[in-house]
Design a protein that fits this description.
InterPro entries: DUF389 (IPR005240). This protein is mainly alpha-helical and about 260 residues long. It has a single domain (about 25-255), classed as Up-down Bundle (Glycerol uptake facilitator protein). Helices cover about 75% and strands about 0% of the residues. The protein has twelve helices and no strands. It is globular. The N and C termini lie far apart (about 55 Å). The model has no long low-confidence stretch (mean pLDDT about 85).
Amino acid sequence: MSQENKEIETAKEKIKKAFSLSEDSASNDEIRSRLLDGGKVTGTNMCVLVCAMVIASVGLNMSSTAVIIGAMLISPLMGSILASAYASVAADYPLLRNHLIGFALQIAISVTAASIYFFISPVKEPTVELLARTSPTFYDVLVAFFGGLAGIIGQTRQDKTSTVIPGVAIATALMPPLCTCGYSIANGRWDMLLGAGYLFLINCYFIFLSAGIILSVLKIPKIRELTEKEWKMRRFRMIQNTIIIALPSIVAVYTMLP
């Protein structure tokens, strides 16, 4: 091998090492423990969730960005999504079902809390912050996907003091769309409900998708190995769901162009 080829190979190895996810990743047991503990639906988590929803609702009602950010930082919603992604990649379907049920319960309680607040609130007109959560585009898909990538990478590192998760919580914004759904229900604004619900779906799905991709790259242990037929079906469903969920947001981008 010539000197030039050796230098090229060395450069490739350095680049590969620089972007390697396995260099400083935590052990499989630690990753499992972190993600599943973060996705537990406990009484404490539910109380924190309700508090976060009320805080976010007040922030949206008053158009206070600082208050909305504070609510996003304390919300435990993302933990359930990451735990569900782990269970899916590990092919642990009973565990996946439990986390999805817990996540559905969190959504129901969140929307109920927001609906009660907005029903009681004397401010009935939608604010700029509320309206901003009703027109999702493909840019929101990008934020959710890359935010999810950053989030799961941060959660799987050896360093437990990562500041990635708070940033991801703010960027992907799971709370505000749910609060907007509560506002829509409380005030009969069904047009807003559709847009806010779609934004929440985008954020949840693409965080789940990106987390699943990283966990697959890290080769976390599976409960059982899938057959070739099961893998093909799984890949087909992933591609199909991604296209179906992303397509309306792509159309929205082009309808916004002059």
